[in-house]
Amino acid sequence: MDTLSRLERTIAERRRADPSQSYVATLHAKGLPQIARKLGEEGVEAAIATLSGSEAELTGEAADILFHLLVALDARDIPFAEVLAELDRREGTSGLEEKAGRTQ
Question: Where residue 74 sits, what CATH number does that domain have?
Answer without folding.
Answer: 1.10.287.1080
